[in-house]
Amino acid sequence: MSSDTQWRAGGISVVGFSHIEDDVPCQDANAYKVRDDGWLVAAVSDGAGSAKYSHIGADAYVSAVVNRFAEDPGLPDQSEDGIVSDLKEVIDATTRNLVDNHTPEDEGEEVSHSDFAATIIVVICNENGGAFYHVGDGAGAVLELGNLDHAIVSKPQNGEYANETYFLTMENWQDYFRITPFDEPFDTVLLMSDGVTPMAMTKGCEAPFGSFVQPVINFLKSAEPERGQQALENTLTREQVRTVTGDDKTLFWATTQPVIEE
Amino acid sequence: MILYSANMGDKFIPDVVLRDNTSQRLPCMIVLDGSSSMSRKPDGVSAVSELNAGLKVLEQELKADDVASQRVQLKILRIGGSDEVQVVTDWTDAMDFEAPEISAKGTTPLGAGIRTALEAIEQQKENYNSHDIPYNRPWLFIITDGGPTDRKWEDTALACRMAEAEGKVVVFLIGTGSANFEKLSRFSRRAPLRMEGLNFNELFVWLSCSASSGSQTALESEFTLPEISWGETA
To answer: Which terminus of chain B has a smaller tally of CB atoms within 10 A, N or C?
Structure first.
């Protein structure tokens, strides 16, 4: 793979069935940047269902993280420790800004950090490798589409219970900050929220689920971007998904496979 | 490689398998008061008849909810008779749940009922773990119109509080107007809930809806559930 490898990338966040019924906004968010030097920075965040402004938190965290690394000329030479340090700094600054700059909906309303509770999974890599940076649930995977057995996975962290996880707004969130580096050959990068993991990953989030991931990525990397995006949205919101989860769903994908032009 | 062009007209990504690979479960234990007092009719209607109607609503609501029907597993205990604990529904997937008919006769051995419930919940967790099934924090609902009549209920009350403090279970104590809320409050750090009238239908609709709610913080003290419309803190 050469340094001028073309990435194809896209991300979508769709509101879950139960949130539509309850008139709750989509609490997932995603953001990404394919840099001119071939580095990819992407983030997916899932706002806590129980937090009032978690949709604002999720959006702020992914934007802040991606903006931090989108243009930084020092990124290619930065150590993993340096990236971690910058990530922690930007996340803490975002949490402070969320509380300090929030305009209350109701007079006299007081907001706290936990009102913006959200998870995050970030990938920073080029075609030779990189790492996932992760707090909470959702998942990340790098893989060769033709051979899913060797995928590197950043799994969700839930503690004992599947519906409970860790958020960036917790005082000790850095205790739950996980790093998964990768330098094996890959052609596809995925980030997803916990609305997608039940379908896109196997039991226990051990590996990507081929019968979901392969047709989805094969379609997306071949389709015209707008059309691919629309078909992905339609697929994630189709009726049969209702029985899997009512939660919001986010999938970010990036592939280094060259696009075949006719 | 197949190329998809804009005029192919297909709306969805083809050949994608959309299924839940997790088999996630939410264990929900319900301890129901089947003592004689539940059959009294101070206002022309007995609590037990309203409870039984409510259980039928629970069955309908769970089966109608796409996520709850797949995720919730129920076990229902009746307390009554001569300080007896009776399994009226053993662990059952919500989609297969058939509402039992609760009879009202005997005493209110809440201590024994809750002890049995706590033990059964831990057994079920072991069962999930041995099959790699992820599960939500179990719910324990206790519904009564009175208070404990068995001798060692205070030991169980302490054990129940400890189980809750250790994050093993979320406990909901629900009483109708005549319940002994002082005694009920001993079973949980969370205050018992006083039901408005005999509004079992709304309680069970809420239970079913709550089963689909989103992720929570993994700190027990912040555990929250959708707003309760069927009662208030006693």
So the answer is: N
Cα-to-chain-centroid distance, residue A34: 15
- B-chain residues near A242 (CB < 8 A): 66-67
β-sheet bridge partners, residue B89: B76
Alpha-carbon dihedral sign for residues A226, A232, A233, A235: positive
User: Tokens 């039901």 map to which residue?
Assistant: B195
Q: How long is chain B?
A: 234
In terms of Cβ atoms closer than 10 Å to its own Cβ (0-12, 13-18, 19+), residue A218 is: buried
| Residue A40 · residue A124 · CB < 8 Å | yes
- A134 by Cβ neighbours in 10 Å (0-12 / 13-18 / 19+) ranks as buried
Alpha carbon B233 to chain centroid distance? 18
Flag whether pLDDT at A259 surpasses 70: no
User: For residues A17 and A237, what is the distance between their CA atoms, to the nearest angstrom?
Assistant: 8
Q: What is the pLDDT of residues A65-80, one digit of tens each?
A: 999 999 999 999 999 9
Q: What is the pTM of this model?
A: 0.86
The structure tokens listed for B206 are 């809420």
Res. B223 pLDDT band, cuts 50 70 90: low
Q: Which residues contact B119 (CB under 8 A, 6 or more apart)?
A: none
- Cβ–Cβ below 8 Å for B19 and A46: no
Cα gap A45→A58, rounded to integer Å: 5
Contact B167 A235 (CB under 8 A): no
CA dist B154 and B151 (Å) reads: 8
Predicted confidence (pLDDT) per residue in A193-217, tens digit:
999 999 999 998 999 999 999 999 9
- In DSSP terms, which residues pair with A206 in a beta bridge? none
Beta partners for A254? A9, A189
CA angle at B136 for the pair B131 and B139, rounded to the nearest 5° = 115
Residue A102 CA: distances (Å) to CA of A29, A118, A187, B120, B217: 18, 16, 40, 46, 22
Residue B59, phi then psi, degrees to nearest 5: -60, -50
Token pair of B5 as six digits: 């062009």
* CB-closest option in B13, B22, B215 to A216: B13
Strand pairing of A249-255 and A188-192? Answer: antiparallel
Check if B70 contacts A (Cβ < 8 Å).
yes
Q: Predicted ipTM?
A: 0.90
Instruction: Give the pLDDT confidence of B143-164 residue by residue, as tens digits.
Output: 999 999 999 999 999 999 999 9
